[in-house]
Predict the 3D structure of the following.
Amino acid sequence: MFNNIPKAKVGIVAVSRDCFPESLSVNRRKALVEAYKEKYDADDIYECPICIVESEIQMVEALEDIKKAGCNALCVYLGNFGPEISETLLAKHFDGPKMFIAAAEESQADLMDGRGDAYCGMLNASYNLKLRNVGAYIPEYPVGTAEECADMVHEFLPIVRAVYGLANLKIISFGPRPMNFLACNAPIKQLYNLGVEIEENSELDLFEAFNKHANDPRIPEVAADMAKELGAGNKKPEVLNKLAQYELTLLDWVEAHKGYRKYVAIAGKCWPAFQTQFGFVPCYVNSRLAGRGIPVSCEVDIYGVLSEFIGTCVSEDAVTLLDVNNTVPADMYKESIEGKFPYSHKDTFMGFHCGNTCSSKLAFFEMKYQKIMARNLPIEVTNGTLEGDIMPGPVTIFRLQSTADNILRAYVAEGEVLDVRTKSFGAIGVFAIPEMGRFYRHVLIEKNYPHHTAVAFGHFGKALFEVFKYIGVSQDEIGFNQPKGMLYKSENPFA
């Protein structure tokens, strides 16, 4: 479990309307909690003993109770019709992610005194939430049995981690983006709107801190840990001490600068002057921090690392940041993909970056020099990349971005990394996303996304889509890889 992302704890508060039996809500709440504990970790939830029955005073009591229990998320559970004022006031005054779900009727044998009408009550709850400008997560079908509602609460957890994490995140950046990287612009306003703090520093500040770590007594221990991780892939042992010095510099900076924030992400500088001044490239260190749940983006990509942090919270796993980089050559497609995988040539591409992907996500790896940078610089100052093919398996590509005029946009698409050798350099994989060609044209290009995409290792599209909705991205601004027959607004129907 990473210590740089939150642990979700959901307070379950049952609500009841006074013209319905309170016992319906109490018993259904108990059944929900029992069902959850049978399937999932009991520490994820807290059962609030206070049942709101048309009472603002009970609402306050319930609010205080779940806060005292350490809950960072709220589930309002309509065991019957529910008191629309008190239940939405509870959501309004709870400072954290919240969801609303409702109980289905149990049996045709008990539709007199045992009928709760929560199906109807959910409509009034949603209406009142809108009146009060209160955002809440409501599942696709929010009415269910105890077991179904337990599953809904469990599906809420990754959303909780991401939303709560953003509200307690500081992004630390070093330097402006490199020249010719206008695409990595980062309008600050939307970060503040999301509750994210940002600390922007100069590369000189970082360089000064790095030099002050020159004789840090911890360097040999960190370098030894790097050598152990690299194993036979340790092809550049001469650079490990400098990399260890840099890793300690970043970690110490985080501790000294995180302030009142609980979680941190780093947008780092990596070129063009970084190599000549520091004497290495930072890719491998970035990969190691990502492996600990502290994402570090390349090229001072602030919204890239913001996306990585969201993915880390949702997946509870390391993520990476890659270029949507190059096409798969036709001969490679014919030899290794056609007839073996259910993808067209345009469904495929190569995702690449210099060497920032965590070793646990690579099928094989070696510490090497950065080939592109070495075309203009001495090889010895470009050492420090972790190169290898990305592990085959399911992936989700996604990004949250503010446009230059402060509109929040996002995209998400599920696919896989194919078990196909890339025959290239860097941390790289052959990706396959259904209908990628159309998605590339009508979302990535048309909506002006930069070349960096965050990559989570697994299918997390459902949770990420809900996170983007929850934090205020308009549904018209959330792109996804639409299937055949579902045209993008700008797509030529005669194409």
